[in-house]
Amino acid sequence: MICAALAVVISYGLMCGQEKADSLPEVVVTGTGTERLLRNAPVQTEIISGKMLESYGGKNLEDILGGLTASFAFSEGDMGSQMQLGGLGNSYILILIDGKRIHGDVGGENDLGLIDPNNIERIEIVKGAQSALYGSDAMAGVINIITKKHSGSGLYLENTTRYGSHNDLRQHDGVGLSWGKWTSYTNFQLQHTDGWKNTSREFAEAQVFEDSKTMTLNKYTNWQIAERLNFQPVKKLELYAEGMYYNKNINRPQNGTHPSCDVYTYDLMYRNASAGVGSKWTINDTDFLTLDVDWNKHAYYYKYTATTLSDGYDPMGNFTNYFPYFRGQKNLQSDQQRVMANLKGVFALPYSQTISAGLMYRYDYLKSPMRTVRGTVDDQSQAIYVQDEFNHVPWLNLTVGMRLNHNENYGYRFTPKISTMFALGDFRLRLGWSQGFKTPTTKELYYRYLHVMGATQFFNMGNTDLKAQTSNYYSAGLEYRGRKLTVSATLYRNVLDHMIALVNVPVSEIPKDVTSSYSGDGSGEVVARKYMNMEDARTMGVDVNLSYKMSKELTLGGNYSWLDTKAHQYDMKKHRLQNVTIDGAARSKWNAFVNWTHRFVPKYQLGVNLSTRGSSRRYYQNNGNGAPFQLWRLNTTHDIGLSGRPLAFRLNAGIDNIFNYVDRTMRPYHLGTNSSGITVYVGFNVKFNQGKKIKMREMKRSSDDEAVDD
To answer: Is-contact 634 658, C-beta < 8 A?
Structure first.
């Protein structure tokens, strides 16, 4: 299966474009924080272009990243995306929207539903902690979502509606206004699915139940409304204000037939909000200053569907394990808030140097009456960074950076970064080394909560004695970029010290004041787990990308990722270190595609995209490994333009999982993929732009060389 994929492995050529006379050279900003041509970026950067997003037709960010790159793996669940990059999980991956970090669960389980796929211009991916611009969350890498910029004058309207199997509805609406020095863009999105169940079999209490109601993916509905207002009082000064509100409800079926299986007497509610202001002062053609200040809130609740005795506070304010909640009542589980401020400057120096420097302040606040001893905790950190890009000779770029981090509990830490690129004709050689530093999250320090899985009750505990994590990342990449063929291979090694993970500990370590939170009467197994520092861990791998543009209409693409992980973990029962594979890691992942477009008449263009993705076995320490899989997908686009009018239409239709592969592994064992089998979908997009007349060529994005604003 891997060999078959490699035979077609020709990296989505749309992300590594060939230069064309009628398009602008592709620009990236994430690696250095300054605009650079992709071919000359000193930090290896992967691109998913707008053209590729349109031809693939992914319904959400998990779908897009899982299908268009080989480095990511997902296990979508109620609490978030459960994403991996290069063998490292959510808490090591920094997700940015236009350079600003997304806010999610303190454990790193970011809800990627916050990102509207219909508003993405392109995606830039930088692996490893290779840039001094980014802090603790970037040990595995950085994903920068570049949103669409709606320029022009007058009124801009856009509507996209997509409907598919399992009553899957995706709605996007955008309204843009421009008058004088003001511009406004309002974005609304809605996502809904009835969910699905791949199997009714569930293992609990040493027996298999055949009629479990537990869903593979639960029914949910989320919606979001966001606004961004820009004001340009003078030519060189831009000001903005933005805000967002997000609402998500997850419905979980009651499973009362078998009390030993997961029993849900509550649904989940998420309420997110954010607000921010900022400015950009363009000093001259090369120098500028930016200031961004933002506030984010992520809160989730239990909303009870039946009378439940649970942890709570009585009317006198006393904590009890048996407080009654009734149908319709809700109980706050956590309210996580964050305030961030960033000041950044970019300045051109003599001898072809560019300096980027900045200050960062971050304040985290967690309110969790049921899950922390004190009810609330907070944390503060600051950083100062500087990065210098040297371009003294055309064939050599050297970027050196340093970041001084400070945390109120863990003190100061200096992390250097260095990367270089040698250019010889169409060849590029890139080398990089960087250090990372990550303090424990408030969840890892203070959280304590009960997680029931079948007949087993896991009591998870924070640990205030945790050490900060550090890393050393090494990479070497070689790339050839011709007019039709692009080939690249990148070798990397990421070594982490004091990596934090949940480790089984004796039940006696559960605090005495919460022992009544679990059933110690012998009716089920009780497992105590505590966040602990591993002695060390390391990941290493190779990413291979190729692309070939056979003609103006036909492009072949694909990529392959090989990964090996090892960690030393202390076995509390045997009192010795043991070698383990990091949970969720797969040795091999791959994807490939064929994309064909043809304009039949001036006002109609057809696009056909056939793609496949797959993974070898995913390894886990408990509850079995995830089975290998390979899925195929067909997507078509139909563009209709009305010449001379400010209207354009697109019809999108496709089939996912063409060969109906379903992983029917019983619960609670791990799945290789939670795909439900064959699904079909259809979508319709209409755009109205008063500011300019949309022509057919504007419906077809530049295939591989799009310019991007920071």
So the answer is: yes
